[in-house]
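User:
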Amino acid sequence: MLTGLFRGGGVVVLTGAGLSTESGIPDYRGATGRARRAEPMTYQTFTGSEAARQRYWARSHLGWRHIATARPNAGHRAVAALERRGLVRGIITQNVDGLHQAAGARNVTELHGSLHRVVCLSCWERTPRLSLDDRLQAANPAWRDRDTEINPDGDAAVQDTSGFVIADCEGCGGVLKPDVVFFGENVPGIRVAACYDLVSAASSLVVLGSSLTVMSGYRYVRHAAARGIPVVIVNQGATRGDALAAATLDAPLGDTLRAVAARMGGSLWSVSGISSRCCTARTGRGCPCRARCAASTTRTSW
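Assistant: Predicted structure:
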């Protein structure tokens, strides 16, 4: 059924953390999940306490190297290949790792934002995370060689963060925050509406690697089902949306999607385009990252 849906085109893909586990990034509720053992940072705590910001940035600084060096897996590459063939109308991702874009996908909506960007809460300027990482490394050289476990949000499991020096906005001195949606914060309304429109125009909605526990993703499954748009869920384990799905498949995502893409035929390779590390990954224009996010040609191996 999955192959048939993609062959008909017009598919919208909704992805979650389970798609990135094969890239070494742990998920929230699957076998690699650590969320049950980690207290998530809320927007209210982050903005209301300098100590909380110090704790967040210390952990995030250590975890960033794992996000920055993660590479797309077979699942990401397969979705990008299906998009290139005109079979995927758009991708809605709950992930903040940028791996869809790194695989060459173009029409990607980052529902929860991206760890590859930082935003100032005073002047709202968005800057590359790489630039902030350089500043944090210079201010905290003793932290460079620490080795820790990584949580699903990309931060490290560190208890003592005292002494870590945080950095403020270079332009106005304001508080810097990763350009992601924290717990207690709402997804921007324009982004939510755009995703509703995308799903409304879809021939089908395929969910990949999400338990759909949070409403931000689950609402699009409800939206599709209410309009008679077929929903297919591929995930390792049960999901909140199973009762609304036309079909569910409990299987490894990389192998499953690679097989689907291979059945479509053709040469599955691409120019990867702008790296997910870039602060302007969607267009690449005016990128302050310069050479560090230059496009590179990569051949996909199937």
